[in-house]
């Protein structure tokens, strides 16, 4: 997450461990939005698989350690935020991450085609007698052999109490389109359009795009689920002044997609920057925003 070596689950590992791994994703991948390709799988079955994969992933990390555990579940082109977007494979080959890491999924969404999914939930890192929390977003792709591997891992710092609170029931977020998906605008164009509209004020830019079940996550602020709460959090958090798409992907059916990029905003301490990850659903009204996950650095 924002101060650590990894996205989701590594929310609060010391930044010094991340410095060795700041090899940013190559320029060749910038602005690409690649399609996923794998045989279809029923949506509810896929959601159960993602939940089971999350639980097995967490158990593996608890048993063998953070680096080896993440290596087992990282896809071949996986990206982690360290804090910059970084290819996971070379970093995980050499990292020696101390401490203990735990997490649990709280929200899961899967493309109707069953090949692309996302999960969010609280995490907790413990080391040297200290604990720090986070709230992760992981993008999953289903491999040709049917297994789920993470394609992207991003985290936002949160108080440890977010994880230590009683677990909430798992929520499966609906991703089915309300009507035939609108093919007139691609994911890249939809994400870039939101970025362009931020200069006119984030509230208006988001208001016309948020789904009713939207999730918005900001550093050290309560997670907002639902359109009304999401818009309030966007109003309360530092206003994003500008953002730039870097990359993303869409599901085989063209219904679910994700995008990530850079963001900048003004604070009393001066201009700050970080990275966003967004999950989009293509509906009969065009692309609508399901998740907006911003790591404020």
Q: Name the helix and strand elements from N-terminus to C-terminus, one letter apiece.
A: EHHEEHEEEEEHEHHEEHEEEE
N→C terminal distance: 10 Å
* Poorly predicted parts: 1-6, 11-32
Morphology = globular
Q: What is the CATH C-level name of the largest domain?
A: Alpha Beta
Number of β-strand runs:
15
Outline the biggest β-sheet: 8 strands, mixed
User: Structural class of the secondary elements?
Assistant: alpha+beta
Helix fraction, binned, reads 10-25%
β-strand percent reads 35-45%
- What is the CATH-assigned architecture of the largest domain? Roll
Give the C-alpha Rg. 18 Å
Write down the CATH topology of the largest domain. Answer: Nuclear Transport Factor 2, Chain: A
Total domain units: 2
Counting DSSP H or I runs of 4 or more residues, the number of helices is 7
What's the mean pLDDT score? 86
């Amino acid at each position: 997450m924002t101060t650590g070596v990894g996205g989701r689950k590594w929310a609060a590992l010391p930044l010094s461990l991340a410095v060795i791994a700041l090899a940013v994703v190559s320029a060749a991948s910038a602005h690409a939005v690649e399609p996923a390709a794998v045989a279809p799988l029923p949506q509810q079955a896929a959601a159960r698989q993602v939940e089971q994969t999350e639980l097995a992933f967490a158990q593996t990390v608890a048993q063998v350690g953070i680096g080896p555990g993440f290596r087992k579940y990282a896809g071949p082109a996986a990206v982690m935020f360290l804090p910059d977007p970084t290819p996971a494979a070379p970093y995980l080959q050499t990292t020696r991450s101390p401490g203990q890491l735990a997490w649990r999924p709280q929200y899961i969404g899967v493309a109707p085609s069953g090949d692309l999914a996302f999960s969010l939930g609280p995490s907790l890192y413990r080391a040297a007698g200290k604990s720090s929390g986070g709230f992760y977003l992981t993008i999953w792709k289903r491999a040709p052999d049917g297994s789920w591997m993470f394609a992207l891992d991003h985290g936002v710092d949160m108080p440890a109490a977010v994880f230590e609170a009683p677990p909430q029931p798992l929520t499966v977020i609906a991703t089915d389109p309300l009507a035939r998906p609108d093919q007139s605008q691609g994911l890249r164009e939809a994400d870039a359009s939101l970025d362009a509209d931020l200069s006119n004020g984030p509230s208006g830019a988001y208001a016309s795009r948020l789904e009713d079940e939207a999730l918005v996550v900001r550093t050290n602020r309560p997670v907002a689920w639902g359109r009304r709460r999401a818009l309030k959090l966007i109003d309360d958090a530092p206003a994003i002044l500008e953002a730039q798409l870097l990359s993303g992907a869409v599901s085989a059916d063209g219904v679910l997609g994700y995008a990530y990029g850079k963001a900048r905003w003004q604070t009393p301490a001066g201009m700050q920057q970080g990275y966003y990850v967004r999950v989009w659903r293509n509906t009969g009204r065009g692309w609508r925003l399901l998740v907006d996950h911003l790591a404020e650095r």
